[in-house]
Fold these 4 entries.
Entry 1:
Amino acid sequence: MDTIKLLEIAEKAKENAYVPYSKFHVGAALLTKSGKIYTGCNVECASYGGTNCAERTAIFKAVSEGDKEFEAIAISSDNPGETYPCGICRQVILEFGRDIKVIVGESKGKHTVFTIDDLLPKCFSGVDLQK
Ligand SMILES: O=c1ccn([C@H]2C[C@H](O)[C@@H](CO)O2)c(=O)[nH]1
Ligand SMILES: [Zn+2]
């Protein structure tokens, strides 16, 4: 599965975004190490704190189905520039591995690949709880 294909799947997942408040559509495509893909979109709520981002939707779908080993996650949004995961999603991505490739989409298939070390340096993680 190449990054462009994963990004295209994220772009398609964006169509299901439930965004009556922000009108900002986000889609994510999560590739597991076994080659399965889980998609996600953002789902908003009138009580705004109930909103779930596209990235976490995809990750929670996977985990709830028993998949926890991830290769990459691609993100696409209405933003013509790069779409980075928010802080909460970065923390959740980290929860499942430091080596997950985060494919940050831009328009027309342009993208950049990051690791969580790039996006969340000097972070708190489960390791800290074992000290
Ligand atoms: O990386 C991001 C950034 C924002 N959002 C969503 C949350 C909310 O529905 C809307 C505006 O913040 O975009 C995501 O799904 N992923
Ligand atoms: Zn988020």
Entry 2:
Amino acid sequence: MSQQLPDSIPPGLFAARAEAIADAARELALAGWTPATSSNFSMRIDAEHAAITISGRDKGKLGRDDIMLVDMQGHAVGTDARPSAETALHTQIYRRWPGAQAVLHTHSRTQSVASRLFARDGLIRLEGWELQKAIAGHTTHESVLEIPVFPNTQHMPELVARVDAWLDAGKPLAAYLIDGHGIYTWGRDMAEARRHLEALEFLLGCELDLRRLNA
Ligand SMILES: CSC[C@@H](O)[C@@H](O)C(=O)COP(=O)(O)O
Ligand SMILES: [Zn+2]
């Protein structure tokens, strides 16, 4: 299945984004955060398009041919390949944050356990951790970082509506968990998205440790 590109998209740009996605995915897979073909990754191409992982691929073994083009409504562009089952969550982020350039979704053990533990509260409240400063806009450990936990569903419009409702209520959002599923976060470039993901993995792990210690 070959990817045809609209004339407006330079092939070098798509190739560079596909390579950045595959590189990030390989490293995250090595960390054990993408078990059993789970997880999906994307990068913005322009205002109308994003490059995203093809559904069902082993995220530790991605090459350029495992990345495809979609429009911001989540439809495949220039290929018969099937985009990630969760494409709608990526394109929503690009629509709502014009500055977002990369979206990362992983299924680490820590993310999965934390999502189940905090689902009953509907959110995880992070406060007092120095590493909160790794999240864009947070300049002190004294700030409060709320990560919502949305119920899992295979029906993406439902999840999209929950994210919209959170944002439309005027609440800040740097990432969200899906109950029993995993995490979504994003950034103004791939490096920032990676930093957010790594910081959140660490912070969720610390919160779980505190509960294990009954602290
Ligand atoms: C293999 S179970 C995980 C999937 O159901 C899904 O949540 C996921 O993260 C990967 O789906 P994909 O369609 O490959 O992007
Ligand atoms: Zn998933």
Entry 3:
Amino acid sequence: MRSERAEEKETINHSEIFASCSFSSLGLHPTICNELRERMGYEAPTQVQAQAIPVVLSGRHVLVNAATGTGKTVAYLAPIIHHLQSCSPKIERAHGTFALILVPTRELCTQVYEILQKLLHRFHWIVPGHVMGGENRSKEKARLRKGISILVATPGRLLDHLKNTSSFVHTNLRWIIFDEADRILELGFGKEIEEILDLLGSRLIESVGKGNEVSSISKTQRQNLLLSATLNEKVNHLAKISLQNPIMIGLDDKKMQPDPLLEHAESVESDTDDELEHPRKITNSSTGDYKLPVQLVQKYVKVPCGSRLAVLLSILKHLFEKQYSQKIVVFFSTCDAVDFHYSLVSEFHSSPNSASEVEVTEMFLRCKTFRLHGNMKQEDRRNTFQAFKTEKLALLLSTDVAARGLDFPKVRCIIQYDSPGEATEYVHRVGRTARLGEKGDSWIFLQPVEMDYIEDLKKHGVSLTEYPIIKVLDSFPLYGQMHRIKKFVSLESHPWLVSLQKALESFISAQPMMNKLAQKAFISWVRAYTAHRGELKRIFMVQKLHLGHVAKSFALKQQPSLVGKSFQKQQSYKRKRDQRQKGQSKRRKINGKT
Ligand SMILES: Nc1ncnc2c1ncn2[C@@H]1O[C@H](COP(=O)(O)OP(=O)(O)OP(=O)(O)O)[C@@H](O)[C@H]1O
């Protein structure tokens, strides 16, 4: 039975997430309201939808900064559909594209497209479509030739079609939406976006005339929307070149500073008829503009390097055994690390519970396991994405390819096994849980030498408490007996961990394929560790690491010098290759990592 307190908390959460009005009171067409209620199961708008829908309906440019999982997608889709369905005469495929939605990843492209399909069910003359990297170009060309009214696209592939698909009609384009704008820019698509804005005649130009006003070379009926859960200088720049006199949603006064280029920007919380006293600009992310769900419980797990793997598996085992229904996402820094851990979790069946090594009975983790990263075939990525969505009890091992915008229902827990680097990445990773007022936990693994990262997150308003890992380890019986806490002095010497580590190392050394995967993962992990930039380089210093302990975290028995040698070989190969490929775009580098 739920306690009164729990119920009270739930109600508070409900009113923090949902608005007290109805979709129809926001001005949406009754059929759209019905679809939202009946097809999507939405009873009431979320707060961000209640704020954004009337503004988007009004035709103003908008910048939305709202926490992850607060319903931003419908906040822009519903008003666009409202306008398009009311066009008289009815719009036709031959009229081409009216709305363009730019998203950073293929998975997000599919996700937005699927929501769009549902919402358009009763409006068969409005045609949804998508174009994205990895898909068949000629099939996309054929679909564009027939006409797509609302197009969801990743930037690179869209640019490709804008340049090479002459039958792509966009003369009637009215909306450009940047969903997950921060991620689009972080992935290095800034140039592509500017080129897209130029090609579509939608880039704003700064006039040197009076008051540094921004003027537009776009057609007057254009309306651009920019949505982002985090804000930084790059997003600020995109806002400046794409939004004209925008309405700001979700930005409070503390986060805005005078900026002549956003002179007419207005906040939706203020009376929109009043001019602002001071022109504003979005502040730099280093001063803390992150929106996190209030109910999200954030912890860190302090683990020495050599015990990382055993602790990760112990936590996962604990979580899957304690909770009847549970979905967990674990983030890694590289594709190789995902592949290694995926194979390990899928095959490791030794149990430190057994008194004898022969007595191997069951899988260590009993859950369905999936993996997702940028080196997988598009079809496999799609299948994983769909399958994990529908599972009730499952584990997803992923790179940051899953960090942004993906909406997997009922993910209860996020584990950042490899640290995310930029605090924005932290926010997006944890944003895969605690969506729309639901409960969610997040844990980040940090080594004792990395503890300054907590201070870095604090600067952005993110504060974490320590997760008592020893309690979890103590809960596992070893050889049928509970161990006594006081007998060991450090985490590494905990009998459960010692025994599990031994079992893992034997397992890996007995299987040449697994050993190879572990070595590969080790090399790319160290490489990714050295790639931290700026301030973070001070916290995540490869020099502070003991490579032997790192090897242990991949269950490798080899001496560090052995593993180190192959790493050095790789490094010298990489150096030579990098020299050859000088000038390669930053975007491709980042893609390779995820
Ligand atoms: N009004 C609503 N009522 C109930 N559920 C809703 C409502 N609006 C959205 N949702 C659900 O909430 C979840 C989050 O929505 P959405 O993915 O649009 O959030 P988001 O703000 O774009 O998140 P992110 O920043 O992570 O991309 C989805 O599962 C969606 O179906």
Entry 4:
Amino acid sequence: MMANLFPFDTKNLLPHSGEVLYFDSLFELKKADEYFKILKDDVSWKHEAIWMFGKKVMQPRLTALYGEEGVSYSYSGITMEPVPWSKTLLEIKGKVEELAEARFSHVLLNFYRDGQDSMGWHRDNEASLGPEPLIASVSFGVPRRFQFRNYVDKKEKLQIELGHGSLLLMKGACQDHWEHQIPKSKKVSGERINLTFRLIR
Ligand SMILES: O=C(O)CCC(=O)C(=O)O
Ligand SMILES: [Fe+2]
């Protein structure tokens, strides 16, 4: 059996109804700096519109989708066609798969240019992800607040900070019961890159 490389004392951050595990150092500082620079320069970043409440609006961030050819990914009224894996993204995927003990077919990338870029409340619960999807989220660049709120009781909230070189796993019933977001922040001025690895069928 493969050893579980995830630190054994990592505790679930959710109080109930799903699992969220945070590991602050998937990559050491030098490696994380290197990945940030390569991804910023080499990823085919796009500024795309989505549909929200019947209106077409620009997303407050840049995005990209990489992964297995022939499988597209649809959310918020748009469909993204994946760009084939790059060497760097395959390297990061390998490390994440080892730690998460899982396999991923795609990665959705987000580039937050400053504190005014954000991602609103949502669940990653598209049918193409299957039931109880495992989502592995890797962050590089300035730390940003990541918030959860209970989908039914919207007053039940919690938040953590996602640091440079960190890994966050969302598992089990998490996407059924909890929404998440990256809020805008006046205090943040730097850039951040986030990668969410998914298995899309
Ligand atoms: O930038 C983040 O940490 C969140 C990304 C996210 O929730 C998503 O891509 O679905
Ligand atoms: Fe998400």
